[in-house]
């Protein structure tokens, strides 16, 4: 029967779809809700658009994205296909209908399917009644149905026998677990019961009708506090008054609670105050309170038969009667350096002690100070702040601070300011700090056990405001503890301990500390300077204080050659430069520095540098020989420039041409010349120019002078031995007159000396004989190059030279080894200036009696040597 109805419903829907031709396909039922775990059956109907090309056999089904098996399909007719899904357990799922034609899938229609459970019986019904305003009931629904569930709240009137009268109540609808009746539907009755019915597509469930008396569920608005005030002259007391709300069930007694607490505490106290139904206001005195303390007060009330208190009223504050502050302030100072004028700034600061009960509201502070030795000069200042700056001179001062309020003044807090030249002893020997998990601990050692009071002062290292310091008095102890939260992490603090004895403050002992450290915020930046060949000096600056985050314990220098292994060196925290040694020459390095503290290290930016190929010593070793060589060459060049004529005479002497000599004429007749030459040549066999000039060839090389000259001497001696005998004929005199005439008698041994000067001068004057004949040794020295002065004729009228008798055999003088490079004539001093200034030329050994161009003959020293060698 059910299947027939379904078929009829499907055919009806199909005919409607065909008639309207509005939709291409449809699915039935749409958005179904079923019980979880049951079987679901859906139908898909094709529209005219898809017929006759497609029919129900082309329809496929999917559950979410999964294809449903073909055995679950059923073809109703050409346009209708159905699918059956067994044990549907999804809380929510989509079923989709597709057509598959020529291998392509096309979505026709889809629907959302929900599964759930039928509702449970509602329970725990409770209601709150606001008189003549609202009645609200709540309940619990049991398990979650996962389906849309509607709730109906029934309010029913009950008889005295607790029987529910039919059709004597009203109801309200809700989709949640709460429902309310509002005025004017709200009426006061003591005989109501409440029932809740829950229903969804799977079923319904109803609770029992629960009787609830209206007076028991009454809850009214909170009362309103009218005043909270103190009574003048009565301390530690406050009076509270309040007003009850208007909408209250009549003829019901009330109870009120007054809650109060001081603003320095989190705990509260409650006072209960009963009221009759006729009272519209209430009052209460709060006693045993603290003096000069502000309190917060709140009130709530309820009916004596109700189970619900009203909400707390809005709180109101008031302060108890004040009294004079009972504790002196906690006073401290910071003394700055003296000014040039002799004055100094003293920063006074103080704080109130945390005493309970407190002293009330402080109106201000009175500061008095005077020189220690003159109390009559007392001065007074008034301040509402807890700090002041006093400008004092170099004397010692006594300072006092008093707090005051409306009831009076506190005791004086007295502090002595020492004079500028006052020296205090060092009582604190050492101070150390350490931290635990929750606390910061400071300990110190004092050298005087009788000192029992100390002041501990601390402030941030970068704090420059004297009023930014904190302090604490410590009595009868040499350690101090406080919560770590009172200090900032990663910040350096200066901590000082001041001993107090009498009214004096001794010298402090200070230390720096961190409560918590972390790695430095940045690393040092390296500066390499100018590197050497195998070393470099690395420099860096200290990290700024705000970025250290702890005490720097050391620095680590990391350096790495290009394509090499990284090396490192660690130095102490006070070292800001370090010399790296044993580096590779002409190599690029990368260096960076890490700053280390107790929490770790941070590396700075890298720096690159390249070592030199040569160091200073290498450059000096290379440059010094080159420089010395250049200096030597330069000196040699300068010497050659300055002494070029001397070098030229030594290495390239000028050899004069005898044919061009104009030194002297020898007017000898041809027979004499011929006989003389014949005698010479007869004994010497052959004496030519080459034989005579042998000595000249020995002159240029001084190192060979001795051996060459000896050879020359031997050669000349052997060649001329015979001729010399014939030439020496006794004492002869050759007289010269102004006309350059010469006597006919000539002796080969006559000591005439021809000089290079006179030859080079090309003399035009007479050659005069020497006044005295030099000894043979002097002549030989002159021949061998001794620089003897010319023998001058002092008497201009005497023109005859006396010759010594060389009758003995003349041997070759060994002085001839000092060979000469110049020959000198003995020139008369009366030679004309013209003759003396004639150009000079070096002499050349000529053959004996060689005629000059002018026709005058002269005797050379070589000839003289031939004559004397015999």
Automatic annotation (TrEMBL):
Residue ranges of the TM segments: 619-642
Subcellular location(s) of the protein: Cell membrane
Keywords annotated in UniProt: Cell membrane, Glycoprotein, Immunoglobulin domain, Membrane, Receptor, Repeat, Signal, Transmembrane, Transmembrane helix
Residues making up the signal peptide according to the UniProt record: 1-17
Fibronectin type-III domain segment(s): 222-323, 327-423, 520-614
Principal place of residence: membrane
InterPro entries: FN3_dom, FN3_sf, Ig-like_dom_sf, Ig-like_fold, IgC2-like_lig-bd, Type1_Cytokine_Rcpt_Type2, TypeI_recpt_CBD
Record's bilayer topology term: Single-pass type I membrane protein
CDD domains, A to Z: FN3
A matching Pfam family: fn3
Organism domain of life: Eukaryota
GO CC aspect terms: plasma membrane
PANTHER family: INTERLEUKIN-27 RECEPTOR SUBUNIT ALPHA
Family as reported in the entry's similarity comment: Belongs to the type I cytokine receptor family. Type 2 subfamily.
Name of the protein this chain belongs to: Interleukin 31 receptor A
Native source organism of the sequence: Otus sunia (Oriental scops-owl)
